[in-house]
Write a structure and sequence with these properties.
The chain has about 475 residues and is an alpha+beta fold. Helix content is about 55%, strand content about 20%.
Length: about 475
């Protein structure tokens, strides 16, 4: 079969499961990597800035330690030119300083932007631009003879910037490399974990439509094993449905062949005579054969529905007393025509309404109809529908009791099988041996059981349906 172009395009446009999993995994990982790199850079820069600022402050303290009263009684920077060059020497950075008196006048050093120190603080930092260069400056408060002097110290930031770039490079690159390795490892691992899913897809795509045997699912992941089990369960249901349909078709073809051939023979015999009495007699026999064929079709359909019943059950809380009363009303006319006394026992007893069951009303009605129909065919002149508690404490029994010849105990189990008929059924030529098997199958679907036993004297058969009692 050639696939539809639109469907193929839709499938090809959809991303693979591995791609989607990688996307869902890698996006948080990439964001985490980016956040980690930023945090690492910020923390490293913070401590690096603190280290450089501390060195800058130490230089300011070094200069301030030489701001004192000289031999002439004046306060100034007591350093020679060589000592000053040694104190300010730096191979990488440009260093500038200035010493300001209490009145703000410069006592030593070069020209630098003024930076007041707030009261209560000893020093203060600021970024400045001096002589076209970005600098970091600190203003240090220094007290000499009770008067406040300030030492301004400024360094260029070339080393700081280079160190920040190196920190960014060495912090981000290893994490990026690890991220790439993780992507490759995840891609390979996800592909390996999804390989059983690909094999399952390949096995299903190459499987013959008539092959409903279970798919072999090797142990892999829990989700893939559950998918395989679900597919196998679907195959089992489809196989059960197909088998039921084939069996139904075979049953119909086999069982209807005989009544249809009989009807054809009766019609041909009638058409070969000109006597209206013969026609009437043949038409009556044709009508009887049609009734039996219709009954057979109904039973075959009921049997097919029983095989499919697990998917269509409608369980609800039911009153067995009402079900038995309705069954009596449905068969009362037929029982009267046959001269059978049909009644019910236990439906009006005290506590009968409390004997509830949980079941499908249609299936329970069908079971009672089949049991009553069998009793009307093969039973005696007394037919009773019975409601009782038990036999166990949490069970309810619906029984159909007749006073006919009964069924030998050795034959009861066989009669619950399909196409099995008793001696009376074979002698009368009625039915197809499906009634009791339908009832047994329905009972199995509802969690009940069918029990055949001898009726109380004067004898007969008691067909009992035992249901679990519904909780109050």
């Amino acid at each position: 079969m050639i696939p539809h172009e639109g469907a193929g395009a839709a499938v090809s446009a959809s991303p693979s499961l591995r791609t989607r999993v990688l996307r869902h995994v890698m996006l948080p990982l990439a964001l985490a990597w980016l956040a980690g790199a930023v945090v690492t850079l910020v923390v490293s820069s913070h401590f690096t800035e603190q280290a450089f600022d501390r060195a800058l402050l130490d230089d300011a303290y070094s200069i301030a330690s030489h701001v004192r009263t000289g031999s002439d009684g004046r306060v100034g920077l007591q350093l020679s030119a060589n000592e000053l060059r040694a104190a300010l020497f730096d191979q990488a950075e440009s260093v500038h300083f200035s010493v300001l008196g209490p009145d703000g006048q410069r006592l030593a050093g070069g020209e630098l932007p003024d930076l007041p120190v707030p009261p209560g603080e000893s020093y203060r930092y600021r970024e400045i631009v001096h002589e076209g260069q970005l600098m970091r400056m600190v203003a240090l408060r220094h007290t000499v003879e009770g008067r406040a002097y300030r030492v301004l110290m400024a360094h260029t930031t070339r080393v700081r910037g280079a160190l920040g770039q190196q920190l960014l490079l060495y912090a981000a690159l290893p994490q990026l490399l690890l991220l790439v390795l993780l992507v490759l490892w995840l891609r390979r691992g996800i592909g390996r974990d999804l390989a059983p899913l690909h094999r399952l897809q390949t096995a299903l795509s190459h499987r013959d439509a008539r092959d409903l045997s279970p798919v072999q699912v090797p142990p892999s992941t829990q989700e893939i094993e559950q998918l395989g089990q679900t597919v196998n369960a679907l195959f089992a249901r489809v196989e059960h449905s197909v088998r039921a349909q084939r069996e139904f078709a075979g049953n119909v073809a086999h069982e209807l062949r005989t009544p249809l051939a009989g009807i054809r023979a009766l019609a041909d015999y009638g058409l070969g005579h000109t006597d209206p009495a013969v026609w009437r007699q043949q038409l009556q026999q044709v009508a009887g054969s049609v009734v039996r064929a219709s009954h057979l079709v109904d039973q075959l359909l009921a049997l097919a529905l029983a095989d499919e019943g697990e998917q269509a059950l409608r369980r609800e809380r039911l009153s067995p007393a009402e079900l038995l009363q309705q069954a009596v009303l449905r068969h009362l006319d037929k029982a009267d025509r046959q001269g059978v006394d049909l009644g019910a026992r236990g439906v009006d007893a005290e506590g009968a309404e409390a004997l509830a069951i949980v079941a499908d009303a249609a299936l329970v009605g069908a079971m009672l109809d089949n049991l009553i129909d069998n009793a009307l065919r093969y039973g005696g002149r007394m037919l009773t529908l019975e409601l009782a508690a038990g036999p166990a404490q949490d069970e309810v029994t619906l029984a159909v009791v007749d006073d006919g010849p009964g069924i030998p105990e050795t034959a009861r189990r066989a009669l619950l099988q399909r196409w099995s008929q008793g001696i009376d059924g074979q002698r009368l030529g009625q039915g197809a041996g499906l009634g009791l098997s339908i009832v047994a199958r329905y009972a199995q679907l509802l969690g009940a059981r069918l029990w055949l036993e001898d009726a109380a004297p004067p004898g007969g058969l008691r067909a009992a349906l035992v249901f679990p009692r519904a909780p109050d």
